[in-house]
Amino acid sequence: MESKVWTRSELAGGLRGLGLAGGDAVMIHAAFGRVGTVLGGPDALVDAVLDVVGADGTLLSYQDWELGVDVWGEDGQVLEAFRGEVPPFDAATARPARDHGVIAAAVGTRPGVRRSGNPGASVAALGAGAEAFTADHPLDFGYGEDSPFARLVAAGGRVLMVGAPLDTMTLLHHAEHLADLPGKRRVRVEYPLATPQGTEWRVVEEYDTSRPVVDGPPEDYFGRIVADHLATGAGRRGKVGAADSVLVDAAETTAFAVAWLEERYGR
Q1: Which among 111, 143, 118, 146 is positioned nearest to 132, based on CA atoms?
Q2: Which one of 57, 132, 158, 187 is separated from 15 by 20 to 30 angstroms, measured CA to CA?
Q3: For 247-266, what is each residue's pLDDT tens digit?
Q4: Predicted TM-score (pTM) of this structure
């Protein structure tokens, strides 16, 4: 028996069934393999989202930065063995981290994409608001105020999880930044940045996103926050292709996450 083949228009139908609509700004996380067999591959899903949000909408994707290896020491400085070899981060050419999946790569390498200038918190965007969401991304605390994540919240944007584990919702790093929690871990990371004058080395300060930002929460606590939020009746669940999918409001999810964190781990 042949497996179902999903088309771009069918994926768009699933997205509309979740509540995605024209003019939406939406950040996507996807485990594309869970969608099933798709005519046109990953680009068909990207095109389906763009079809639904239309000319006035914007598709965003968390990118990070693909270097292939961890080049930093425990102090956040680039190791001397790699210092002369690390290519500088250039938002115009940098590739997304491979562990973010093929949809992030499909968005991040699409002609006309805009990419924000913070290497570790980098966001790519396509559509009407791409420049507004990605321009002038602060280097320090790149998930905080005036970041693409903050702008998504302010714009009434949404987050779409297509088969992706709930604990991969990057927006919750913005909630970590906002939450009043004692003892939030900070890190300093050194990056080489491409500039018209050549490579500029910059040490960036950030809350630690590699583990829970404070002691106490389990490693998968992002997933617990999103599940608890959905249990209140927030968001929409449905199928995109064969993938169990979720669509939530960015502002509501952030507010819920901040309250969840402060209630359990706040002062």
Answers
A1: 146
A2: 132
A3: 999 999 999 999 999 999 99
A4: 0.96
